[in-house]
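Table S2 (continued). Query chain:
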Amino acid sequence: MEIIYFAILFFTFIAGESKNLRLSSYSLIPHSLLIAISVFTLAYIGNINSLYLIAVVDVMVRAFLMPILLIILLKNRLEREVKPSITHPLSIALSIVVLSVGYNFVDTIKISIFPNVLSCFSAGFTLFIYGLFLLLSKRDTAKMIISFFIIENGIHLLIISMIPHMPKIIELALTLNFVIALFFLIYLTIRLNEILILEEIKKLRESNNIYKLEE
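Corresponding output:
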């Protein structure tokens, strides 16, 4: 399981720190696919049948539908992200600290304080914290949406980790989380499309102004 979680963190890092928006968006596919694989593995190891359906839904919605939609919306967008609020080398260094040191720290705390939660707790909490870090440090709209995506996946894993304690309530929470993910998908589509249209209008106005000055 640890290999799967490390792979999730690796693709999360690529999604968060790549300056190329397309690469960031494409990285969400293996990121979410590995989350679905981890859920399926937890279902098999713990004999938790309800997690199998959740893993299938994760593959369809989180690993394909949402990332592909983001990629389509970025089709005509500039390749590189807007400069973040902190320098890129510092952002990379902080990302490594949050993802590696943070994961190991949370895993140690989990063993001593929450020994009965599923192993995905550490990965979920780390994704949640890292997503918040990205949200605060990035100024690009697409990267902020990717940050929300990572936060939502982190919450998803955190909820799953609690299923041995309150299976019925957790199953309800996972259903609610899925509904929220769908609403987020709809909001993502509408909001990013509006922003891209505004950017195109701005570029058109700037080009018209330059043309008038040349005349």
